Amino acid sequence: MGIEKIEQTFTSLKEAVALLQKELQVSYLDALIETGDNLLAKEVHVEDGLPTAEVKTRLEELYANAQLAGLTTEQRRQVMQLLLLQAYKQEKIQANHQMTPDTIGFLVEYLLEKVLPKKQGLALLDLTVGTGNLLTAILSKLNQNGWPKIQAYGVDNDDTLITLASMATQIEQISVDLFHQDALDGLLLPKVDVVVSDLPVGYYPLDERVTQFKTRAKKGHSYVHHLLIEQAVNQLKPAGFGIFVVPKGLFESPEAKGLLDYIQANAYLQGMLNLPQDLFASRRGQKAILLLQKHGSGAKQAKQILLGDFPSFKHKEQFQAFLGQIDYWERNSLMK
């Protein structure tokens, strides 16, 4: 029944987005944002006579057929994810702007629950929130697992992505404070218990803005993912955790020594797990999950660093056995 509800809502809203896209002559993403605004306002926005009365009536019918009010938070999140996937089919979206798949989001959330005690008022930050799919996947799962009140924050400097994240979190009824800014500028938010981020990969073009960063390149542009790891560690409370989706070869680049030096001086490298290869189009694009813990009271280097390769999700027994190894590591190495 749940799947049928999701399909019905998705089908209605997909048609509504396509109708607005054609009527307003805008991109799919802009039409999706307009659809979200209409749903939140509970009325169809008309400007300069568009959409026409006929189209407005059809949109109202589609919004009613969507029956959004009858969906749970997780079902709403899945609908939003399906609508965003339509954008990737229609528009050329650069790799750094594509949303993090749920398969990766749930692994990040699994590790989060292993390394952090369940507590009231957990403060959680996504430094590169994008459309919000990674953050909302984590929050939805934490809520399902009974975590008490969570204070969540998201940062992104892309106008369209942060607008999509704002629209999605409101529709999904997930509370997130969003900040539209460069994540490498001064952050106007409190220190947090954990930072999660699917880090963009590439060079940061504004050299003059990162002169104070320890992970900056000695010559030329710096790797933005190195800078963001440093910024994340700075934003953590003492003994807080950073859980990052990073390139598998993070520590193989010419600039890796500077990043390692920074980590050794400020945090404990507690783990690095390669994600299943079949999630990625090529070996070169394969990613891993990096687990860091900031220095501070109660934090110490695990007896053994958590290293390994996640088996394919297709191999269920192997995958469950690997999760068992993570459980064993958490009980016998991290917390000892």
From TrEMBL:
The UniProt record lists the keyword Transferase: yes
Domain YtxK-like N-terminal helical, residue spans: 7-86
SUPFAM superfamilies in the cross-refs: S-adenosyl-L-methionine-dependent methyltransferases
Gene3D superfamilies noted in UniProt: 1.10.150.470, Vaccinia Virus protein VP39 (3.40.50.150)
GO molecular function, one term: DNA binding
UniProt keyword list: Methyltransferase, Transferase
Coiled-coil region: none
GO biological process, one term: methylation
PANTHER family named in the record: ADENINE-SPECIFIC METHYLTRANSFERASE, DNA METHYLASE ADENINE-SPECIFIC DOMAIN-CONTAINING PROTEIN
Protein name: SAM-dependent methyltransferase
